[in-house]
Amino acid sequence: VGFLLLVYFAVKLYWQRLSAPWNHFDPIPFKIYPFIGQLPGLSQLNEEDFFREHFKWLGDKDTKIMWLGVDKYLITRDQKVIEKLLVSNTNITKSVSYWILNDWLGSSLLLTTGIHWRNKRKMLTPSFHFNILDNFFPTIENLTTKLCESLEKLAVKGDSFDACKAMKWHSIGVMCQTMMGVEMGDFLETAFKGVKCADEEKTKIVHFVESIDFILEFVITRSKCLWYWNKHILKLFPIGKQYYQRLDFIKKFGTTMIEKRIEKLKNDSEEDIPSNIDSRNKKVIFLDKMLTNINKGEVTVEDLFYDTQTFIFAGY
């Protein structure tokens, strides 16, 4: 009994010392347990509710704290706090909780730090020219028109559809085509049919978008569920097997798209463009701007995959 009491007070003292620096922030409205934090309450929320509830949690406060295990997370809408973080060139080391994205985003700009982060940032900065959206606007407009046409067909038939899913998929579709040059076509219409398309390439595109959507949602679920944290234990669950299968498909499909783009750019050299055509009118995607670093030997196809996926993740 004496030993148990000693352990109890030791745990209590440790937890008090751990949480003391954060006591001036109100916690979100879930009970806090030592070492597991607010995971029991948070694990009951699905992905959409998890984000939807953020503003409710804040109430009349600009900033509150959320405990995931022993890790602390600030939930804030204070612009000054956010600005200090985003403009900083020194506060670039990510917290340990970012491990959950390692399988998907690897050595990307988001997850690296130090000299590797600075080198990547230096290489990617030219790709973010102020008029970059002007180049992508025709693609965005085209995909948005197709989205409206697909939804109109469903509306005319009186069929119901998930508007949230439609917009999520549209966003991913725009990112895939502008970032990687994946021709999306009328993939939304194919996806809403819920049947396998005869066109194998189109089926792969739908599966690619489905897989990205699945991964994006599952990383939230995984972060809230302790039993999913260990990679080997996760693989024992059906959802874990599906996670790694989809992740493998995303990597293979994404890498193939990059390799095809590299080959296409080699074939479509400047010498092949007729003199009466302005090269500025060529269809350019974000990936093209980063491919110049391939020839310099500064990045690999794998690096490009991780970085393009990071921007898809951020754009989502």
TrEMBL record:
<dbReference type="InterPro" id="IPR036396">
    <property type="entry name" value="Cyt_P450_sf"/>
</dbReference>
<dbReference type="GO" id="GO:0016705">
    <property type="term" value="F:oxidoreductase activity, acting on paired donors, with incorporation or reduction of molecular oxygen"/>
</dbReference>
<keyword id="KW-0732">Signal</keyword>
<protein>
    <recommendedName>
        <fullName>Cytochrome P450</fullName>
    </recommendedName>
</protein>
<feature type="signal peptide">
    <location>
        <begin position="1"/>
        <end position="20"/>
    </location>
</feature>
<dbReference type="GO" id="GO:0004497">
    <property type="term" value="F:monooxygenase activity"/>
</dbReference>
<dbReference type="GO" id="GO:0005789">
    <property type="term" value="C:endoplasmic reticulum membrane"/>
</dbReference>
<dbReference type="InterPro" id="IPR050196">
    <property type="entry name" value="Cytochrome_P450_Monoox"/>
</dbReference>
<dbReference type="Pfam" id="PF00067">
    <property type="entry name" value="p450"/>
</dbReference>
<keyword id="KW-0256">Endoplasmic reticulum</keyword>
<dbReference type="GO" id="GO:0020037">
    <property type="term" value="F:heme binding"/>
</dbReference>
<comment type="similarity">
    <text>Belongs to the cytochrome P450 family.</text>
</comment>
<dbReference type="GO" id="GO:0005506">
    <property type="term" value="F:iron ion binding"/>
</dbReference>
<keyword id="KW-0472">Membrane</keyword>
<dbReference type="InterPro" id="IPR001128">
    <property type="entry name" value="Cyt_P450"/>
</dbReference>
